[in-house]
Structure formats: structure tokens, C-alpha cells
Amino acid sequence: MSEKLQRDPDEVPLAIARTARNRWRPSMIWIVPLVAALAGSWVGVRAYLDQGPVITIGFTDAEGLEPGKTKVRYKSVDVGLVSRVTFTPDHHSVQVTVELEKGAEPFLVSDTKFWVVRPRLGAAGVSGLGTLLSGAYIAADLGTSKSPARTFVGLTTPPVVTEAMKGTAYVLHADDLGSLDVGSPAYFKHIQVGQVSSVSLDPDGHGITLGLFVNNPYDQFVTDDTRFWHASGVDVAVGTDGFRVETQSLSTILAGGIALEAPPGSTAQARAPQGSEFHLAPDHSTAVKSPDRVVENYVLNFDESLRGLSLGAIVDFRGVEIGEVTGIKVEYEAKTEKFLFPVFINIYPERVRSRYLEGGARPDQQAHVLMTRMIEKGLRAQLRTASLLTGKLYIAIDFYPDAAKVAARPELTPMPLPTTPGNLEELQSTVVRIAHKLDQLPLDRIGTHLDAVLSNASTALVDVDRLTRNIDTQVAPEMRSAFAQASTTLKQTGRFIGPDALLQNDLRSTLRSIGHAADSVRILADYLDKHPESFARGKVKEP
Amino acid sequence: MNVRSAASRGLQRCNVCDLVSESPPGTARCSCARCGHPLFLRKPKSLQRTTALLIAASVLYLPANLLPILHTRTATFEADSTIMSGVVSLWSSGSWPLALLVFFASIFVPLLKLIVLSGLVLSVHLRWQRRANERAVLFRLVEFVGRWSMLDIFVVALLTALVQIRGLATITPGPAALAFAAVVILTMYAAQAFDPRLIWDRTSGAGIEDRSRAGQP
User: Which of A82, A117, A187, A247 satisfies CB 3.0 to 4.6 Å to A70 for a cystine?
Assistant: First the structure.
């Protein structure tokens, strides 16, 4: 090598020849783009594979929803991201496009619920405070349906009941919502056992349908005859034991709630199935009454004034409410040119227990047959005054065996019940009758007769006076001499029977002789007892 | 420009000890007479290496720009931001000089490097003969600007290290940061692997062409 370098100082040294390697060899550098391509494609493939389903949710407004920022969460775990917020074609609401994460396929069923979580102040408390700082997010609740869906309608309010909660849902029908709302609590023996999950007006507008969700351990206490009532406010009852105030909890007084309870004497044991329907009573006392499932309608025609009779007035059978007034009308009957005042009543035959104890429900026709028989036995309706103070009337039904016979007309609907005049009416007519009779008395004739009688009486009195005087002048002296005689007689008698009287002395000596005789007899008897032989042999000589 | 190059005279320089030696005629491969290091007229497999690194950089350029580079989580807010979304938010918040800077440093410059280097490789490969000096200027530009492309990575590294207030604000680098760093490094290596002398090889004499061709596949 050194001699090569020093070959010639002016010459450029000659490079050393090497064996040629003509075999073409790919450079190792190609591994770099290969690795990059692999890494890039891995990222791409993963991004594609991780891409979850895209859904759209309709909301009334997009308050707090920001594309690319607002998350969709299920149980506080992110499951998606809002990618776009647009209007619906009619611009009436907004459509939120959400990219769900991979594995979110279970959410793609029709009853999955979505709602926007914002800070809320409600009767049930404050919720969503965390969103004050972090901003709104869309919460999801997994549905259980099987039908797939990619388009959803967001709820305006958070659902009270989520699918994960264990319990049973029931349906309550109420006449009025009161102060209830979604989320209002339900109490069983003052323990909160559930909440109102939905509130809707019936399609006909006559009532309210409530969804009630009873949480798991407590739903076993809901049986077919469990009663529900509004626990809102304070229930004040005046009874024989004085005032009684019933409330549930303080929050129900302010915010309303539902109470439930098994009625006294309930024997039902089976748990009511999911979706069972119940009536929501306005208060406790109404709730514990037996429900009236069978209703019979009757019409009553009263001759007297109906002032004081109102809708809802009770129909009373010897003090037991068995129905109520449902209608009061005025009818003009052209044929007879008379006004009729029909009163329509509902009777709840189930309140008459025995009729149902014998055997199940019976056809309506039979009710009329029974009623016909009752009318024959003197069943009548009567208007009675419930309170003299208010003049309120109620209808009493009772048997009047002496009432005039009326033919029952079961073929009419509603069937008319015969009526009998009311108490007050009867009293009034009696008073009138007496007054009328009084009016008919011949008072002036009675007066003259009385006058004559009185003058006769005065002459009679004169006679009596004379008689008395006669007694004074004639009878009295004679009586005095008679008394004197009697007195002497008594004196003589006294002398005769006095202690030193003759008769008395004689009598005393006689009695003494009799005593001696008796002693002798006794001695004789004793002797005979000891010596009975002496009776035959004579007295034994003493030795 | 017509220049007689050393190569055309059969001379080559050792890359290790800088000894100029004469290649023995008829041999394609030889080594330095002083240090024994293999002698090359041009960087060996320059075009191949540049092309490979460019392809790798281009592939990684996509995730670098599409994936989030920064993950910001504060008490009120949590977001992933890509380079472009950062530029947009900077622009919309009014600090457009900063937006322009980030845009040039992070999006435009890497892209420019990729395009310029690809163009150079293509021009060499297709034996363009014109505008050789302009192409050389472009190459110098690419080499110069290469080190500035790490600005983004520097910012991300700084933020990640500084903003770690648990519960209040946390910034973590996203997957794009890695890809972006790889793009920058790969383009720098690609620029280094490219032998700018190749630009003129096609314009000058045919003798070098043959010799240089021997080093090329």
C-alpha cells in the first residue's frame, strides 16, 4: 500500500481495485418506507375499524351542543361525539349527528333514549351541576328493543327511570295531575319506593295517565288491589277522635307525591304484573274505599223541588253510601204537558257485598230482575235533608212496605226507581193536614155549648153550697152526740177488761188449774213409760 | 454549464481520509489507497435511499396531519386538536401571525420538502438537463429549512412537560406528534441522502454518466 502511495509524488495515487459485485441487491433503506407504510396503514385501518356507527338525534334546540366537543355519554362513559348540528328540513328543530364509538351497536335500537344533560333545578332536586363547568353533554340510555334504528328523537327532560334500574312500571289513571310531575316520589309506609316516570294527558282530555316506576325490593308489595292516592299537601280529617292531620313527607307537601298502600283486610298476595293499571285517588279515604267496577244507572223522578240536590250527592242505603247523583235534568213531556225532573244516579252494586259473594259477575239483565223484585217489596227512593244548615239534599233508598204499589219498568234504560215523598215534605204535608183539620173545628158552636155548660155548673155549685150548710147545721150535732156515746161505751169496755176486772181474775185461776192438771198428766205418762205393766196390774207398791 | 469534472479525469476522493486517487481503468469498484475505505464517485444508492425515505415520509405525513397532535383536558373542557385545527383556532382567535407561523412550519414546510425532494429525484431520474442551478438552490433551501420543521414537536414537548396540573389542565401528545416527528426526521435524512452532484451529472460529459451509473442500480 505504501509503495503505491509513493509511486510518484506528482502522480495521483492509484486506487485499489476490488472484486466487482455486480449482483444487484436492494438497499436496506427500503425497510423504512415499508415500516412507515405499515404503521400508516395500521393507523388507517384502526381508524376505520374504530369508526362507530353514525346516528342522528332530533332535538328541539341545540342549546349547549357543540360539534366536535359535545360528548355522548352512557353511565358517565363517553360513547360518542357530536359531529354536526344541523336543522331539520323544515327548520323547526335541530338534528344532531353523532359519531358513536366502535362497539356502540347495542345503542342502535329504537327505544334507546337520548337527552341533553344540563343543570336542572326541579322538585326532585338539583341535577347536572357538573355540566355547569364542563358544558352540556348528551346522555344515553340503552334500550331493550330489538328493532334497529339510526334516527332518534331526543327527550326534552331526562328520563326518571333508566333501563338499568330494577323495578316494575305501573300505569296510574288520575282525574287530575295535582302538583305531581315527572320525578315526583312515591311512598309506601313513608319510604320512598319509586317515582313518576311519565305524565300524559289522555287522548280524550278527560284524565291523566301517569307512569309510575316502583323500585325493585318494593315492587313486591304492589298487588292487584294496592291503592294509590295523591300524597300532596296536608290531609285534614275531622273524626270522632278529633282532628287528624295526615301528611307524607315534607317534600311532598311542597312538591307533591304519590302514596300507596294495601287496603285494610287485603288478601291479595301476588305481585301486580308490569304495566298493571290502577286508579290514583285524590286522597287517602277515597283510596281505601272499595273500587267501583260495576255501575248501574237508574233514574228517579221526584215531584218535589230539587233545590239543594247537587251532582255527586250521595245515594244512601240506611246510612251506607251505595251510589251518587250523576245528573239532574228538566224534561217537558208534551203528551201530558208536565214537567219532569229526572235525577240520574249511579249505583255501585259491589258495595252490596252479598250479591257478589254468591257468584261472580252477573249479566246486567239480572240486576234489573233483582231490582224489580226489590221494588215490589217496597224499595223507594226519597229526598232527604243532609243538613238543615246548608239545605243540602241526598237521596235515601229504603224499603217502605206500606208504599203504594208501583210497577217496575226494567225495560227502560236507565231503569226508573219509584220515589216516595221526602221527610221534610211529609212533615210539611202533615202540618198542613193538621192545620186544615183545626180550621174545620166548629169553634163558635163549641163556645155557646161551653157557655151553657158553665151556667149549669154555676147552679150545681149553689146546690153544693146548700148541701154543705145542711151538713153543718143538722148532721154535725148528731155526730157529736154519737161520739159521746161511743166514748162511754169504750170506757165501760175498759172497765170490763181492765187488770183488776172480775173477768180477768177468773180467767187467771182457771188457767192455773189447767196447769196443775197438765203436770199430773205428765207424771202419769212418765210412770207409765217406766212401768208399762202397771197399766194392767195397777200401781206397784214401793218397797 | 460545461465543466470538466474530476470524475471525467478518472479521479475520486476518499470520503474518510479525503485522499484523491485515480481509479484503475476497467474496475467498477475500488477502495482508498490510504485508508482502504471503499471509494464512490457519488453517494451510493443516493436516489434509491432518497426515494425510499421520501415515500416513508409521505406515508407518515397523512396521519401526522389527520390525527390529533395534542390532547388538552381542563376542568371544563376536553379536546383533541390536530395541527390544522390548531392553526384554525389560532387564526379565528385573532393571532394570525402565530397561525401563519405554525402553518408554515408545520404544514407548508414539510409538504414543500416532500415536493421539492420528489421533484429533484424525479428530475435526476428523468435526466432533466435544464435549470440545474435553480434546482441546486431548491436543494439548499430544503436543507436549510429542515431543522426548523421541528418547531411543532418542540412546542408539543414543552406544553406536555409544563401543563401537567392534575385536575385543572393536562396536555398530552397525540399520536400525530410521533408521526410528525418521523416525517421531519425522514425528510431530513432524505435530503441528506440526496447527492446534489447528480443534478449536474446528466448535464456534463457521458464518461461520468457511465461511472456514476455503475454505482446506481
Answer: A82
